[in-house]
Structures are given as C-alpha cells and as structure tokens.
Specification:
By secondary structure, this protein is mainly β. The chain is 12% helix and 49% strand. It has a single domain, classed as Beta Barrel (OB fold (Dihydrolipoamide Acetyltransferase, E2P)), CATH 2.40.50. The N and C termini lie far apart (47 Å).
Length: 160
C-alpha cells in the first residue's frame, strides 16, 4: 500500500520571516505568552519557566535554538506547548516561543521535498523536509533535532 498520498496535520508558524511547520503529534496546545520566571545559570535559549494551569514548564526561545536572533516578544508571539519523548522513558512538556502560530494544514507526504544537503550538514539540519507551495517555502521542523535529548537533560538540570 502506498502512503505517499496520505495527508498528515501540521501546525504552521513563523520565526521572523521564515515559515515552519511541525507535526501536530508533538503539539499539545498553543497559548499566549504571559509571565515567566528566569532561571539562573540556564542555557541561553531557555527564557525561564512558565506556570501552565499549575504545571511548571521550561520556556525556550525557538529562534535561539536555531541560531537565529533572539525573539522580540510581541502581541502575536505564542507558546507552542510541545510533548517531547525520549527522556527516561517518559514525555517532557516544554513551551517553545514562536513569533506567530498560524494554522493547522494537511500535508501529503509526496508534497514534502527532501531538505537540500548543505555541504554534508544534512545530518544536523533542523528540518526534515521542505514544502514548496508555488514558491512559498515552508520548512518542516525536525523536533527531535531542535529539542534534543541532551537539551532536555540540560533543561531538567537547570529546573531541578
């Protein structure tokens, strides 16, 4: 059976002028940014911690994680609450700050192009593929590379 025509839902969002999409499987919800508490000696990309209905979550600047300039928080800024797997056989929730959360779209697997090999750096590239909609490029984020197990362990040590 050929699954190339099967579509899957992705949440689209912006980081500066760049458009990204992330599999809905990782996204629990999208919330407005409120107050957060800075944590001393935490990694640069960790803005602090937030209280989400009684649960404390680390808040990360997604742009800093990707090597982009720090996010300037605006009224359109949102926090994507993500479920990450692979830490001590359990999930960890984090808040990923983005400039703008847009919409959920259905993408067929055969619409996703392979990410270009930038001088053999594909293994570390933060994208799994590219959606090219008539020249409108959307990068499919590789959540497991952007928010790796090593990052999760570093965050856990900062919050503990």
């Amino acid at each position: 059976m050929n699954n190339s025509h099967e579509s899957k839902p992705y949440l689209t969002f912006s980081l500066g002028d760049e458009k990204f999409a992330i599999s809905i499987n990782f996204v629990q919800e999208v919330v407005e940014i409120g107050q957060y508490t800075k944590v001393p000696r935490s990694p640069d990309y960790m803005l602090g911690i937030i209280n989400l209905r009684g649960k404390v979550l680390p808040l990360l600047d997604t742009k800093l994680k990707l090597g982009l300039p720090k996010t300037v928080i605006s009224k359109k800024s949102r926090i994507m609450v993500l479920d990450l797997q692979g830490y001590e056989d359990r999930n960890l929730q984090i808040g990923a700050l983005v400039d703008l959360a847009k919409e959920v779209i259905e993408i067929k697997e055969n619409e996703i192009q392979e990410a270009p090999d930038f001088q053999n750096s594909q293994a570390s590239a933060p994208v799994t593929g590219i959606l090219n909609n008539q020249g409108d490029i959307t990068l499919i984020m590789d959540v497991e590379k952007v928010f790796s197990v090593q990052d999760i362990m570093q965050i856990k040590q900062s919050v503990a």
